[in-house]
Amino acid sequence: MTTRIRDVMSPGTAAVEPMTTVARAARLMREQDIGDVLVTYDCDLFGMLTDRDIVIRALAEGLDPAATSVGSVCTRPPVVTLAPDDSTDHAIELMRRYAVRRLPVVERGGCPVGIVSLGDLATTEDPRSALADVSRAAPNR
Description:
Elements lengths: L9 E2 L3 E2 L5 H11 L3 E6 L2 E7 H9 L28 H11 L3 E5 L5 E6 H8 L4 H7 L5
Parallel strand pairs: 2-3
Antiparallel strand pairs: 1-6, 3-4, 5-6
Helix pairs in contact: 4-5
């Protein structure tokens, strides 16, 4: 049986506008215990900002997180996306091809509705794997 993305994705992901500061996005990630936010303007996906983007593209470059916009350091289009009715097999194929750990899920017309992570897929596709165990574990505090 094929599993659909809508059944495994994290719905209602956090989103910020491109002019949001990196510091604000980082606080949002901490508050929601997540490692990424979608960068959107209205309903359009502008990009994706991960905790790694903050470290590599902002902090390591010496940029001030309080003065740097997420739009200037996020991963910009073409961001690879999925539709809610896509299969988990398709998600795995895209993650392999593009070497990414997370994929935004967008409805027809481009409006983001969720995100699917490598951990989500591991938990669904191989629930006894080490990655699935790690993904289910309580977060570090």
